[in-house]
């Protein structure tokens, strides 16, 4: 007890702070989400300051810039100009992400392809509609086609995000049957029906024509259900699992870390990013400090890797380049 015990002895200077640091973050653990479009020109996101929707033609430049900043992995999203009811652009061998993957084949960056239909459907839902709801099993067929198409194009990893029942098992079988047995799956296993996705939907040009996604995404208060979803995905063959969003669900990340012995990813989503940017723009917080604190909190909760729009900025700090 005090005065014999003085906790401040371990906070005297930078040397002791470094020795006693419990959680460390590395640039190797950051994944940069990147949007690509089938237009000649890139454009800025209107709701995510600093984020661009890139032309497929600029893919190599985007990858090289990320690598120079210290980021070694990217999560790819496509934003097509043409959409249809079945999201055919997702599994078209000439689709946006497929073109991007081929363009980046020799870039040296690790390529993770998001796998869903929502960016490609004209109704904004993550699968095929039957009446007003998504037909789970018909959607799985298209997920399988998309998985093979993305793997054929050069994806190093697939990240199915649609939250359809059985999607991991179906995708794993499609990959194995097509000769892609070594392609790992990072499942969006605990994806909550969150209000924090708004800026992403602007960047990806997703407009939900009717209803919402409460029929297949987890409601925000359901902790036990999230555990079941993650357990089922692991049993179906997921090589790693993801919790999304990150900071509002730090308890879920901690629960997952204590229960499962697989790599865990957390997605610091667009709303989390944009809130920090907005507060910083009004001089309410220090952007760099808030950015790093938020990422450390996610790592402290138990995430092995973090998907974040701050990846390049954070990597430069971690690599001593900023």
Task: Give the SSE map.
Elements: H1 14-19, E1 30-37, E2 43-44, E3 52-55, H2 59-69, E4 73-79, H3 96-103, E5 110-115, E6 129-130, E7 133-134, H4 136-153, E8 157-160, H5 167-177, E9 186-191, H6 198-203, H7 223-236, E10 240-244, H8 250-259, E11 264-268, H9 270-281, H10 287-301, E12 305-308, H11 311-318
Helix pairs in contact: 3-4, 4-5, 5-7
| Measured distance between first and last alpha carbons | 41 Å
- CATH class (first level) name: Alpha Beta
Name the structural class.
alpha/beta
Shape: globular
Describe the structure.
With about 325 residues, this protein is of the alpha/beta class. It has one domain: TIM Barrel. The chain has eleven helices and twelve strands. The strands form two sheets. Strands 1, 2, 3, 4, 5, 8, 9, 10, 11 and 12 form a ten-stranded mixed β-sheet that branches. A two-stranded antiparallel sheet has the order 6-7. The longest helix is centred in the middle third of the chain and has 18 residues. The model has no long low-confidence stretch (mean pLDDT about 95).
Give a short overview.
With 322 residues, the chain is of the alpha/beta class. It has helices at 14-19, 59-69, 96-103, 136-153, 167-177, 198-203, 223-236, 250-259, 270-281, 287-301, 311-318; strands at residues 30-37, 43-44, 52-55, 73-79, 110-115, 129-130, 133-134, 157-160, 186-191, 240-244, 264-268, 305-308.
């Amino acid at each position: 007890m005090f005065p014999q015990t003085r906790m401040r002895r371990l906070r005297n200077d930078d040397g002791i702070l470094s020795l006693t640091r419990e959680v460390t973050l590395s640039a190797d653990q950051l994944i940069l989400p990147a949007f690509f479009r089938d237009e000649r020109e890139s454009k800025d996101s209107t709701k995510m300051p600093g984020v661009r929707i890139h032309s497929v033609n600029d893919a190599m430049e985007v990858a090289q810039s990320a690598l120079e900043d210290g980021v070694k992995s990217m999560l790819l999203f496509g934003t097509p100009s043409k959409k249809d009811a079945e999201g055919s652009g997702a599994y078209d061998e000439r689709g946006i992400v497929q073109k991007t993957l081929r363009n980046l084949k020799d870039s040296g960056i690790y390529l993770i392809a998001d796998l869903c239909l929502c960016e490609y459907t004209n109704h904004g839902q993550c699968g095929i509609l039957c009446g007003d709801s998504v037909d789970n099993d018909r959607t799985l067929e298209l997920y399988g086609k998309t998985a093979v198409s993305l793997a054929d194009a050069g994806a190093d990893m697939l990240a199915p995000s649609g939250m359809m029942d059985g999607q991991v098992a179906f995708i794993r079988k499609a990959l194995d049957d097509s000769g892609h047995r070594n392609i790992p799956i990072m499942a969006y296993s605990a994806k909550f029906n969150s209000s924090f996705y708004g800026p992403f939907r602007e960047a990806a040009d997703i407009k939900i024509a009717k209803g919402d996604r409460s029929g297949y995404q987890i409601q925000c208060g359901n902790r036990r259900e999230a555990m079941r979803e993650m357990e089922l995905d692991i049993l179906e063959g997921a090589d790693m699992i993801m919790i999304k969003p990150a900071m509002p669900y730090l308890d879920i990340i901690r629960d997952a870390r204590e229960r499962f012995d697989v790599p865990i990813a957390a997605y610091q989503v667009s709303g989390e990013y944009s809130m920090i940017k907005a507060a910083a723009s009004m001089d309410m917080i220090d952007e760099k400090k808030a950015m790093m604190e938020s990422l450390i909190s996610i790592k402290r909760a138990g995430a092995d890797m973090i998907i974040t729009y701050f990846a390049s900025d954070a990597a430069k700090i971690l690599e001593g380049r900023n």
